[in-house]
Amino acid sequence: TEACLGAIEGAGALNAFVHNTPDLALERAGAADARLAAGNAPAMCGLPIGIKDLFCTTGVASQAASRILDGFRPEYDSTVSAKLRDAGAVMLGKLNMDEFAMGSSNETSTYGNAVNPWKVDGRALTPGGSSGGSAAAVAADLCLAATGTDTGGSIRQPAAFTGTVGIKPTYGRCSRWGIVAFASSLDQAGPMTKTVRDAAIMLEAMSGHDAKDSTSADLPVPDFEAMLTGDIRGKTIGIPREYRIEGMPEEIAALWDRGADMLRDAGAKVVEISLPHTKYALPAYYVIAPAEASSNLARYDGVRYGHRATLAAGDGITEMYEKTRAEGFGPEVQRRVMIGTYVLSAGFYDAYYNRARKVRTLIKRDFETVFAEGVDAILTPATPSSAFGLGEMANADPVQMYLNDVFTVTVNLAGLPGISVPAGLDSKGLPLGLQLIGQPWDEGELLKTAHVLE
Ligand code: GLN
Known about the structure:
Blueprint: H1 2-10, E1 17-20, H2 22-38, E2 48-52, H3 79-86, E3 90-95, H4 132-139, E4 145-150, H5 156-162, E5 165-168, E6 188-193, H6 196-206, E7 236-240, H7 250-265, E8 269-273, H8 281-296, H9 317-328, H10 331-344, H11 349-372, E9 377-381, H12 398-402, H13 409-414, E10 418-425, E11 431-438, H14 443-453
Parallel strand pairs: 2-3, 2-4, 7-8, 7-9
Antiparallel strand pairs: 1-3, 4-6, 5-6, 5-10, 9-11, 10-11
Helix pairs in contact: 4-5, 6-14, 8-10, 8-11
Glutamine is lined by residues 101-104, 130, 150-154, 182, 289, 405.
InterPro entries: Amidase, Amidase_CS, Amidase_dom, AS_sf, GatA
GO cellular component, one term: glutamyl-tRNA(Gln) amidotransferase complex
Subunit structure: Heterotrimer of A, B and C subunits.
C-alpha cells in the first residue's frame, strides 16, 4: 500500500486517481496485516486497489466525474466496493472516468482526461474510456487492480488500449446497487487487472446475489481461479464473419488470426460463424443507452445531490433546474439526455426506442443460435484500433467516437460476459486486445480460454 501511494504521488501527470484516500488506505492495510498475522486472511487481504468514481464509497467523494455531483459523499458503499473491502482489498482512492461513464476516451471527465502510460514518440494518448483512470492506474502500477464498469465497452476498450485485462461479467453477476446508473439494462461492474488470474480472483470477490438489486442473479459463484487449468481441448471457438468490418486495419486482422491459431494450437476447434444482426448493434445501443440515461439522470435536479446553480432575483424552480443542469452536465451528457428524451417522446417512441428494443432481441437471438449450435466462445478483436491521441477524436464528429464501440456493444445488448486480453503490440509499439465472448454465466470457461491467449 505504501509503495502504491508513493507511485500515485509520482504519477500525477496521468490524472488517473482523482480522490486519494491515503489515511484510510493505511488504516485498512494495517488491519489487513493483523488478519494476515492471525492466519485468517480473506482472498484479497491487503491488496491495494483503485475504485472507479462511479461506485459509491462511504464518506469518500463519488462524483461519476461530473460537476453535478460536486461535493457528494455517500453514506454507504456500493455492494461491489463493500464486497471487495470484505475480501480484504485496500482502497487507495477513486479513479478518473468519462462523465457518467459516457465516452470512450476519458475526455468527458470534469477532472480532465486521464493519460495512457503508453506513449508513441512522446505523444500523449488516451487510455480509452469510460474506465480510463482504472486502466491507466493498473497499467502504470499505481494499484494492483481496479474496478471498472461496462455499459457498451468501458472495461474492455480501455483494457485493450493499456495492455491490461478487463472482464465484463454476465448481466446480473455483480450487483449494481450503489453504482451511479448510466443505462440500467446494460451496466455491469467488473475487474481490471494485470493478468487473467487476478481477474478471476477479483471477479469472485465482486460477484454474487444481492437483495438490493433485483436484477442480480441468485446463482452460485464458482471458484474462477481453480478453473484456469489451461486445458481448452475440445472447445469450439466461433469467428463471426460480420466482425470483419470494412476498412479493418491489416494489423487488427492479423492479430485476430494469430489469436485463432493460438486457440487451435491449444486443442480448440475454430469455426466461422455468422451473427447477422451485428450491423444494427451500434445504432440500437445509441438509442437504448441514451434513453435509459435520460431517465436515470432526471434525479439530478439541484435539490437532492451536489451542485446547485446560483440563481438570479426572480428565478423560480424551473430556472433552478435549467441552470443547474446546464452548468452541472458536460456537453456529452447533455447530448445523451437530449437524444434519450427525443427517442422516448410521444410520436417517436415506436419509431426509435421500440425499434431498437426489437433489434436488441434479434442480436441476442443471433448469439443464442450459435451457442445452441455448439459454439463455446466467440473470438473477435476488442477494438478497431490501438489507443488514439488525446483530442484526436474528441474534437471530431461524436459519431467517430461512438464507432470505437463496434465490437463491444453487442455483448452488453445481449447481456453476455466478454473479456479483453492483451494480445501483443502493433507496429507503433502500442498494445492491442482480443475479445472473447462467452455464454451467460460462463465466466469461468471464458477466463480459462482467455488465460490461454495471455
Ligand atoms: N463508449 C460507450 C458510451 O459512450 C460505452 C460507455 C460504457 O461502457 N460505459 O456509451
